[in-house]
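# nightly structure sweep
# worker-07 picked up a monomer target from the shared queue
# config: single-sequence mode, recycle default, output format = structure tokens
# input follows
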Amino acid sequence: MNLEITLRVNGATHPLVIDTRTTLLDALRERLGLTGPKKGCDHGQCGACTILLDGRRVNSCLALAVAYQEAQIVTIEGLAADGEHLHPLQQSFIAHDAFQCGYCTPGQLCSAVGMLREAEVGWPSVVSADLTAEHVTLDDEEIRERMSGNLCRCAAYANMVPAIMQVAQQAQEARRTQQVRKEAQP
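# output follows
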């Protein structure tokens, strides 16, 4: 059965007529021409298809497109906010040589953006020392655990962790600076 839907992807709306069984991954790649999300395993096990839905990371191969008409969908193509300058994680991946063949890179980057948001709001992971802490301290072990759903056949993990750590530290420093300025105001 076909259905008329509208998807909001990377800040633009796209009306589509699709089969109700169409995955979000297939709608993005085959109907909208957004080939950043990759079809790896098609079973939600590799993370190559990871995108952001309302800021949360999702395996798009497991999501039906018809279920996400109201969502803000962001793919690697829309990760740079203004379309001109790379996202800080994209810059850091380049600086740390955190990719090889590049097949998994779009999913890794989208997952890292979502993971940093999760940590920022205090979501614990299985390796978090204090599951009730308001703030999660990202160390190498936390990053590895939180990114474990994204596979890299080239094993570029050794450079991904420092790339993500650098962006996490920059964001933390920016928050500290903002807090100090806020406290200094009369």
